[in-house]
Design brief:
By secondary structure, the protein is an alpha/beta fold. 39% of the residues lie in helices and 19% in strands. The strands form 2 sheets. The chain has a 4-stranded mixed β-sheet. A 4-stranded mixed β-sheet has the order 5-6-8-7, covered by helices on one side.
Length: 287
């Protein structure tokens, strides 16, 4: 808290001097005025009186909106931190008798580091009798520097230190610029991929809209007929030969002589029996 109080300027009633050199809100010079008058002007303008140069004699104070001033200062500090470049030194090691394919691979690493805004230290390691051939190592480093000349500058020329010879390459662009360009490339790549996906989807959606929907034919399930019970077949009467006239004449009287069954008469209900007459009692006269 004390460090924050020391770094922050004094404002309004915290200013302890009899007079100040007053600056208006638009930067105009008002002149040297008493502190009471400066506070009154700040109150009338609905602003704060901020001491911006306490070491001056008299101190310089300005009329401003202190809250807005602090916000703008914080934004500027954030931007400065974001654009601040943290330099990183990458190191790549070579052998004097390096294969061409290995050379191209290591050169690709150097290019990637330089594009990212980092410095690159290229070191050649000598073994055995190779130490007697420093010129070959220097030519190899010069060749690498020429291959990446469009991305780098030589900060330290090749110098031999014991069994090693080193070359330091610095990036042409700042790290913040390289980071911004890498972000833009990523955004452009994402936008291109999105557009390509939309372009592939467009013909499919158009075909779906244009083609009418045809109902698929329904395949009827085969109906299994229930087994029918076979009805017994009646034997057809065998037709005999046509009867002769004598047989026909004999059969006719027989058919006529066959008596018809007599119908039985219906039984008659029994007649009711007459009730027996009761005998009247006889009166006997006394003798």
């Amino acid at each position: 808290m004390k460090g924050a109080d020391i770094n922050e300027p004094r404002i309004n009633d915290k200013i302890r001097v009899p007079e100040v050199r007053l600056v208006g809100p638009e930067g105009e010079q008002v002149g040297i005025v008493r502190l009471e008058d400066a506070l009154r002007l700040a109150q009338e303008a609905d602003l704060d009186l901020v001491e911006v140069a306490p070491e001056s004699r008299p101190p310089v104070a300005k009329l401003m909106d202190y809250g807005k001033f602090k916000y703008e200062a914080a934004v500027k500090a954030r931007e400065a931190r974001r654009n601040q470049s943290n330099t990183v030194v990458k190191e790549i090691r070579f052998r004097l008798k390096i294969d061409p394919h290995d050379y191209e691979t290591k050169k690709g690493h150097v290019v990637r580091f330089l594009k990212a805004g980092d410095k690159v230290k290229v070191t050649i390691m000598f073994r055995g009798r190779e130490q007697s051939r420093p010129d070959a190592g220097r030519r190899l480093l010069q060749r690498l520097a020429e291959d990446v000349a469009d991305l780098s500058i030589i900060e330290h020329a090749p110098v031999q230190e014991g069994r090693n010879m080193s070359l330091v390459l610095g990036p042409v662009r700042k790290k913040s610029e390289a980071r911004d360009e890498a972000r833009r490339e990523r955004e452009a790549k994402v936008a291109a991929e999105t557009a390509e996906r939309e372009a592939r989807k467009a013909p499919k959606s158009a075909a779906k809209v244009a083609a009418p929907k045809v109902a698929a034919p329904k395949v009827a399930a085969p109906k299994v007929a229930a087994p029918k019970a076979a009805a017994p077949k009646a034997a057809a009467p065998v037709a005999d030969a046509a009867p002769s006239e004598d047989a026909a004449t004999e059969a006719a009287p027989a058919a006529e002589a066959k008596p018809k069954p007599a119908t039985k008469p219906a039984a008659k209900a029994p007649a009711p029996k007459p009730a027996a007459a009761k005998a009247a009692p006889t009166k006997t006269s006394g003798t």
